Amino acid sequence: MSNSLLEIIDIYKSFDIKEVHKGVSFALSKGERIGLLGASGTGKSVLLRSIVGLEFIDQGRILYNGERIDNLSEKDYPRIRKSISYSFQSGALFDSMNVFENLAFPLFEHTDLSLEEIDAKIHEVLKLIGLEGIQHLLPSDLSGGMQKRVGMARSMILNPDIILYDEPTAGLDPANTVNVVKVMKKFSNTGVTSIFVTHDIPAAKEFCDRIIILDKGHVAFDNTIEEFNNSDSPIVRKFLVTEGFENAN
Ligand SMILES: Nc1ncnc2c1ncn2[C@@H]1O[C@H](COP(=O)(O)OP(=O)(O)OP(=O)(O)O)[C@@H](O)[C@H]1O
Ligand SMILES: [Mg+2]
Questions:
Q1: Is the residue at 207 inside a domain?
Q2: Structural domain span for residue 235
Q3: Which single residue of 10, 52, 198, 220 could bond 60 by disulfide (Cβ 3.0 to 4.6 Å)?
């Protein structure tokens, strides 16, 4: 029995003739901060979506706490999605609901907490994201960066074991990017395990303790952030050139 929280074991996934994953494997331990990198189209989002059952793999296995979760029925996924939270790029707040209602929604759906307890929980999570006292505001009253952080708070509110962040800093200016990374660190410090999909290499370096690079359907690199920073491997160099962070020469 392994100690891994999440195991991706030799997964394959194609769309028609497009082979996206051709034997992808890696495992996550509790509390890790993984950066999942790779050029556009290498299957990062498909992998995250496969973990929470929004996409189905063709071959291989995905285990959460040793339980197979890649072949569950739709009625079993809500339980998994409480423990493994997929943080959508858009944040996906309900426009007609204020911040309190947006954050209370998953709590009403999935818990038996009293209104008082919900109130306290929302206060706590807003404090964590540095946005206290905005319960009564509508998403349209918030800046894009604030909306993003409220969306992240909603991903965190059911105390998941794992959060999957799909490009949470995409389209944000440097100041808001810093705030989003800060929020991810605060969540991580509460013990949640993270997978951070991004093209923002500086943000990945700031947040992650381990980097995985997908290339041509495989895991091309899987090592510590220190190894990534100091690596002169052709794989890492090719990736940095493709992403525009280094010049080819
Ligand atoms: N539902 C789908 N039907 C057909 N092809 C799909 C579908 N979803 C993804 N793909 C294809 O699978 C490949 C991987 O897509 P994915 O969205 O995972 O890439 P990505 O690594 O997240 O890229 P990006 O960095 O641009 O977000 C792409 O070629 C994409 O076009
Ligand atoms: Mg993607």
A1: yes
A2: 30-58+76-247
A3: 10
Sequence-ordered list of residues with C-beta below 8 angstroms from that of 174, at least 6 positions apart, any chain? none
Number of domains composing the chain = 1
Cβ-in-10-Å burial (0-12, 13-18, 19+) of 197 comes to buried
| Most ligand 1 atoms within 8 A of CB, residue of 21, 45, 54, 196 to mutate | 45
* Each residue's pLDDT tens digit, 221-230: 999 999 999 9
Residue-wise pLDDT for 164-188, tens only, equals: 999 999 888 999 999 999 999 999 9
pLDDT band of residue 163 (cuts 50, 70, 90) is very high
Residue 62: CB within 6 Å of ligand 1? no
| CB-CB contact of 70 with 84 (8 Å) | no
Element (H, E) at 135: none
- Distance, CA 165 to ligand 2 centroid (Å)? 10
End-to-end Cα spacing for the chain: 46
Q: What ranges make up the beta strands (E) of 38-159?
A: 59-64, 67-68, 84-87
Query: What is the identity of the amino acid at 144?
Result: G
- Residue 6, beta-bridge partner list: 28, 64
Does 42 contact ligand 1 (Cβ within 6 A)? yes
CATH code, 237 = 3.40.50.300
pTM for this model (two decimals)? 0.94
